[in-house]
Amino acid sequence: MSFCIVSCHPCTHFFLYILQLHCCGVSNYTDWIRLSPQRVIPTSCCLDPNNCITANYNDVYHRGCYDIIVEYLEGNMDLLIGIAVGTALLPLIGTILSCSLASYIKKSKYDVMN
Question: Where are the bilayer-spanning segments (predicted)?
Fold first, then answer.
């Protein structure tokens, strides 16, 4: 399987990810009806994007994306905490190593170059 990336647009990647969540709207599909100017449910909410009539509410996902994202984050909290701690420790380790290097240089009394 090969992929060809034509352009890199963060918004496009976000919508591709939303398609994989199998959800529609924030709380449910009625968010699109209430908030979109055309009052139309997008085809990204369809159970089957190739064969979908968005006016038929049985053809669209009923769960909202907020609940699904919260469940995903809660299910992967250990991983998220590990990434946060690891990211916070990297500068601390760099600071400790630079201080020990400075201490080593000071103790070895290198000649100062003018």
Answer: 79-105
Query: Residue 85: in which H helix or E strand, if any?
Result: helix 77-108
Q: Is the pTM of this model over 0.85?
A: no
- Residues composing the chain: 114
Q: For 20-80, give the DSSP string.
A: HHT--SSSSTHHHHHHSTT----GGGBSSTTS--TTSGGGB--S-HHHHHHHHHHHTHHHH
Q: Give the span between the Cα atoms of 2 and 57, in whole angstroms.
A: 35
What is the distance between the alpha carbons of residues 28 and 69, in angstroms, rounded to a whole number?
A: 13
Question: Domain coordinates of the chain in residue numbers?
Answer: 9-64, 76-108
In sequence order, which residues have a C-beta less than 8 Å from that of residue 45 and are 6 or more positions away? 23, 24, 25, 29, 32, 54, 60, 61
